[in-house]
Amino acid sequence: MKPNKSLWAVLACLGLSACVSERVVLLPEPDGKPSALVIRSGGQQQVLDQPYEAVQRQGGSLTATTMPAAAVQERFGAVLAQMPPRPVSFVLYFLEGSSELTPESRAQFQAVRQELASRPVAEMLIVGHTDTVGDLRGNDALSLERASAMREALKAEGIDPGAVEVAGRGERELLVKTGDEVAEPRNRRVVIRIR
Amino acid sequence: MIKPQWLLATLFVWSANHLLAAESAGTVKRVSGQVQVERGSERLKAGPGMAIFVADKVRTGSDGAVGITLKDETLLSAGANSLLSLDKFSFDQTTHQGAMRTTVKRGRLAVVTGKLAKTSPETVEFHTPNSILGVRGTEFALEVNAHETE
Predict the structure, then answer these.
(1) What is the pTM of this model?
(2) Which of B16, B141, B25, B27 is nearest to B88 (CA)?
(3) For a 10 Å CB count at each end of chain B, is N or C smaller?
(4) Could you count the other beta carbons within 10 Å of the beta carbon of residue B10?
């Protein structure tokens, strides 16, 4: 029997890593910050540190190349279209010693709601903070109360509380550095990180 | 003396409980076409909101694509005919310490790295059949054309 040529080619590939071709391209950061990727393969190493630099691995060796934006779009457009939305943060502020939002932040809360509604399967981490008025333990409790109050408010808006994690950091991570027992409105806050 | 089979049984129960108690590593955000998650011997149809766990394999069909966000805010999107596995993932929400390893067996994957890549980039790795990618605060895309079938 004469072996089928294309079948032989497939068989030759099984278990042979040399016939797996790979391609990697570095994409630009949205903020233009530098970034880099290190590719190691069979004792070889390539560093990509400019947007659209690429490396191709074929026949067992790495080759440096570039993949312009148009080529990235052609090859990866459908993949990139499925990328989950980038996480965003909101900061809301509270009245002194309480877990009640300031009037300005109450308005901002609506922006949080809108953001949540616009996302596929939004998840959140809400971290509460306080200023330095009061003792450390009391502020740990107050910061957690603030985060929990936000979770309750979102629950009332129909947001699944299972998708919300809360934490309190008390006066341990001040936004504005102050001495002890200083009332500072900008430190009385929650940071809502939506992913 | 404890019989070895008892010990094995105990270990098995312990690890099963451990698995059940394990926290998810991420969440499926977007799905189009055929996407399957392989978890142990289970084959689950992926949909938005599905939790992803360490050791899960994600397989997309010829019309499939999927977007996943991990807890450290790593964003992953895979195209058609892809197979990836989340080999390793741990992340402390407070300290941002942990580690992750994702393997792309075949197909196309785009990545926006998250907090782990900022806090401890040396613990973040992407593997392909022949290469290991290390990241330094990075967005990238990769493709593996494998003739193997798995």
Answers:
(1) 0.85
(2) B25
(3) N
(4) 11
ipTM of the complex as predicted: 0.86
CATH superfamily, domain at A88-194: OmpA-like domain (3.30.1330.60)
pLDDT attached to residue B147: 63
- Is A145 within 8 Å of A128 (Cβ atoms)? yes
Return all residues near B51 (Cβ < 8 A) that are at least 6 apart.
B24, B26, B27, B28
- Interchain pair B138, A79: CB under 8 A: no
- Rounded (to 5) percent helix, strand, coil in chain B: 15, 50, 35
Q: Is residue B104 scored above 70 in pLDDT?
A: yes
Where do the CATH 3.30.1330.60 domains begin and end in chain A?
88-194
CA distance B27 to B29: 6
Mutation to test the B interface, candidates A17, A37, A45, most B Cβ within 10 Å: A37
What pLDDT, on the 0 to 100 scale, is given for residue B5? 52
Q: Please check whether residue A50 touches B, CB under 8 A.
A: no
Choose among B29, B69, B133: nearest Cβ to A24.
B133
Q: State whether A20 and B147 contact (CB < 8 Å).
A: yes
End-to-end CA distance of chain B: 44
Q: Which of residues 104-123 of A touch B (CB under 8 A)?
A: 120-121, 123
Comparing A89-103, A138-152, B19-33, the range with the smallest average pLDDT is B19-33
To which residue do tokens 């698995």 refer?
B19
C-alpha dist (Å) from residue B131 to A46, B8, B134: 11, 36, 10
- How close B14 gets to chain A, by Cα (Å)? 26
Q: Measured between CA atoms, how close is A29 to chain B, in angstroms? A: 6
Tens digit of each residue's pLDDT (9 = 90 or more) over B54-97? 999 999 999 999 999 999 999 999 999 999 999 999 999 889 99
The conformation of residue A117, written as its DSSP 8-state character, comes to H
Where exactly are the structural domains of chain B?
Answer: 24-144
Do B131 and A24 lie within an 8 Å CB cutoff? yes
